[in-house]
């Protein structure tokens, strides 16, 4: 009887859950209906593409080791794909999601079922659309709990709360990027930042559209923070409270205390919030605003929420409006010194239970420049980019040309000819003073070129920012893998001096790393996941301009080292 009761409770807590008795694996089923819904923000109502009519989209809840089955039904007029950001997708690259990389888009009226297992991961990740700029409204958190009976490596929190940053446009983001690509200029910026879809009280018509976190005194809350904004790094803090960072990109870190965090698009950060021991007779603002390094225009505004303490005994007698409101002091917009110091605090937990398995030796070394550039303006039009050109972006001066056939299908069926070339340059073809005076010729090359790696190759990759059209930080996201950030610095990377200072003991392990403005970052990873894996800047405008490339990891000799065949319902181009 007790077992039946527990099973019933499990179904209530985790809808769509089935447990296979013979394997012990829990399968969780979700249905995502892609459809239009009317949403009002900033006194502006518009139809947006949503999942199940929700903005932001629904959270996905799982445990380490669970199998997820997400049925996506496209009722909208847009082609769409979904990406499960940070999920390793071991041998299941067909479920990774980037359009024309691992799959063709799900066309209007079509259905595709994403099947994958969460292997060796626990923490906060997120999902989002991976076609054009649809992720401006199609996103949500993925919460992966530890296996049953396995505790957190910190005291169990009283409550867990997702905090998901986003952006709101009064206009259609598909029109925004379409116009920018046509004219060659920079795209229009968002009208507001949001916390869990709400702009907050600093914006017009948004006093009621303000996220409120209601807490009890003397408790510990785990905040699962995601930056789902399209184009902005963000500072975040809560007035009068410190935050203890315990996890980054679903990997535990050595805890450290800070009053402010910086989080790039694509990254997740789990922090512990310890509330004050007694009712403080005050309300506290939580706020996020951008960290800016580029020369282009940006949304110079602040999203805010409220941290409200429940009054003694839970009585509603205390009016929050009469309480004093404290505001956090966030760094200045271009405070790179703070960002550098904050980033340097991240270290892998490095315990026996959660080791930092950083490759001590490497088989292949790569040096990639990442930055902006230009493309010629077509002869029959006037362009709004630099000196009458079009803005572009590139890795090693190769601006990635999106194929019309999914790369993974071309690779799996041995039909890569005419789809991609396996000759992506391991180093810049024309070295220059990367962070000094830029070269006169800023035009990029275009091509669909990839790096091919044998299975289990250990890789070291140095990513170097350039000053072409202005130095800028770039959050680079690698699909299919985590990597270890073994070093970073400012100026030009020195291959003779800089590796001496690498941290090969407890470097932080992430899936998204920020290349410092005017600097470099070095990462290492083991290519132990066969398939085709996208790597791109998570500033969506830079991805649209071509700051992206792909890695092809070949099958290993054993069955469990080979990419599984494609599912029968895989969308076709």
Question: What is the multimeric organization of the chains shown?
Answer: single chain
Beta-strand portion reads 35-45%
Distinct helical segment count: 5
How many domains in all?
3
> Using DSSP, what is the number of strands?
34
The biggest sheet amounts to: 6 strands, mixed
Strand line-up across the major sheet = 11-10-13-18-15-16
Describe this structure in words.
With 573 residues, the protein is mostly beta strands. The protein folds into three domains: 27-145, Cupredoxins -  blue copper proteins (Immunoglobulin-like), CATH 2.60.40; 159-344, Immunoglobulin-like (Sandwich), CATH 2.60.40.420; 364-561, Immunoglobulin-like, CATH 2.60.40. The chain is built from five helices and 34 strands. The strands form seven sheets. Strands 11-10-13-18-15-16 form a six-stranded mixed sheet, with no helix packed on it. One of its GO terms (biological process) is lignin catabolic process. It comes from Colocasia esculenta.
């Amino acid at each position: 009887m007790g077992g039946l009761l527990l099973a019933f409770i499990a179904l209530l807590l985790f809808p769509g859950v089935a447990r296979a008795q013979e394997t012990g694996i829990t399968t969780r089923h979700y249905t995502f209906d892609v459809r239009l819904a009317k949403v009002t923000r900033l006194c502006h109502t518009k139809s947006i593409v949503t999942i199940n009519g929700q903005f932001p989209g629904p959270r996905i809840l799982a445990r380490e080791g669970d199998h997820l089955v997400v049925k996506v039904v496209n009722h909208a007029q847009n082609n769409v794909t979904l990406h499960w950001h940070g999920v390793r997708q071991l041998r299941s690259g067909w479920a990774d999601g980037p359009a024309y990389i691992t799959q063709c888009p799900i066309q209007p009226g079509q259905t595709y079922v994403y099947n994958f297992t969460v292997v060796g991961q626990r923490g906060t990740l997120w999902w989002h659309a991976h076609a054009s700029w649809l992720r401006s409204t199609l996103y949500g958190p993925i919460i992966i709990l530890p296996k049953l009976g396995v505790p957190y490596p910190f005291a169990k929190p009283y409550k867990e709360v997702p905090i998901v940053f986003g952006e709101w446009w009064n206009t259609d983001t598909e029109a925004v990027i379409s116009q920018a690509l046509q004219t060659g200029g920079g795209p229009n910026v968002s009208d507001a930042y949001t916390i869990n879809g709400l702009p907050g009280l600093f914006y017009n018509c948004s006093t009621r559209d303000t996220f409120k976190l209601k807490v009890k005194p003397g408790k510990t809350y785990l905040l699962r923070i995601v930056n789902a904004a399209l184009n902005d790094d963000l500072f975040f803090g809560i007035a009068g409270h410190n935050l203890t960072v315990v996890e980054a990109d679903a990997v535990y870190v050595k805890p450290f205390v800070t009053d402010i965090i910086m989080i790039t698009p694509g990254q997740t950060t789990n922090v512990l919030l310890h509330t004050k021991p007694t009712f403080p007779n005050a309300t506290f603002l939580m706020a996020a605003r951008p960290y800016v390094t580029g020369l282009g225009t940006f949304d110079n505004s602040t999203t805010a929420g409220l941290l409200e303490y429940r009054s003694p005994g839970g009585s509603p007698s205390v009016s929050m409006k009469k309480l004093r409101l404290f505001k956090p002091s966030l760094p200045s917009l271009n405070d790179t010194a703070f960002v550098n110091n904050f980033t340097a605090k991240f270290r892998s937990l490095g315990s026996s239970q959660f080791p930092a398995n950083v490759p001590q030796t490497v088989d292949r070394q790569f040096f990639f420049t990442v930055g902006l550039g230009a493309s010629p303006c077509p002869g029959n039009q006037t362009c709004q980019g630099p000196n009458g050109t079009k803005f572009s972006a590139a890795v090693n001066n190769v601006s990635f040309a999106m194929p019309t056939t999914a790369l993974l299908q071309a690779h799996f069926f041995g039909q890569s000819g005419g789809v991609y070339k396996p000759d992506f340059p391991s180093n810049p073809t024309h070295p220059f003073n990367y962070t000094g005076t830029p070269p006169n010729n800023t035009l990029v090359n275009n091509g669909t070129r990839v790096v091919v790696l044998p299975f289990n190759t250990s890789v070291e990759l140095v990513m170097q920012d350039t000053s072409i059209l202005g130095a800028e930080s770039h959050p680079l996201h690698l699909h299919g893998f985590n990597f270890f950030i073994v070093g970073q610095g400012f100026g030009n990377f020195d291959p003779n001096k800089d590796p001496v200072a690498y941290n090969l003991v407890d470097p932080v392990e992430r899936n998204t790393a920020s290349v410092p403005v005017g600097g470099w970052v070095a990462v290492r990873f083991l290519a132990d996941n066969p398939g085709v894996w996208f790597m791109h800047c998570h500033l969506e405008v830079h991805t649209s301009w071509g700051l992206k490339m792909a890695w092809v990891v070949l099958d290993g000799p054993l069955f469990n080292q080979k990419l599984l065949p494609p599912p029968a319902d895989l969308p076709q181009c």
